[in-house]
């Protein structure tokens, strides 16, 4: 990691790369989202070499932001690392302390309790718990989970039958589709990404064949 940080500092130096020197936290935001999405895609392909490369790109974003922050005196990579190490230890008292748990559900409950304590007992608002940068389907799924909303195939069919031909109607049907996916234990974001990948693969094959 130190070598990666040194390279980023060299690229950001006055005699380094003009593009890298111009970047800010804000300008890099789309790349952070893109690299995380590409890493998720690599997991879906099952190709370990591809996943390794994409995780490297995600790590690059961590290094890039850390170097920019250190230049402005806000935090360093070491601060990032210390923070996540301390958080993992603090939120796993069943591993690093003497808290007893019987299953993963208790682990999640403890995690949420510890998170609340870290915020001095102030609960996070729902809008704070669902990142705005998530894909629309993933964001809807999290919102439905927080709201304890459920659905199934019949609810989706009802939404299709009743939804108006408008943006609002499309949104209602998509929300019902998300609920249907959740009722089967499926991640709608992952499912649609896989479908999109299949469409693009078909297009690539058609183009390669000259069709």
Automatic annotation (TrEMBL):
CDD domains associated with the record: NTP-PPase_MazG_Nterm
NCBIfam families with a match to the protein in the record: mazG, PRK12333.1
Gene3D superfamilies (alphabetical): MazG-like
SUPFAM superfamilies tied to this protein: all-alpha NTP pyrophosphatases (SSF101386)
Cited Pfam families: MazG
InterPro entries named among the record's database cross-references: MazG-like_dom, NTP-PPase_MazG-like_N, NTP_PyrPHydrolase_MazG
Protein name per Swiss-Prot or TrEMBL: MazG family protein
Domain NTP pyrophosphohydrolase MazG-like residue range list: 23-96
Signal peptide coordinates: none
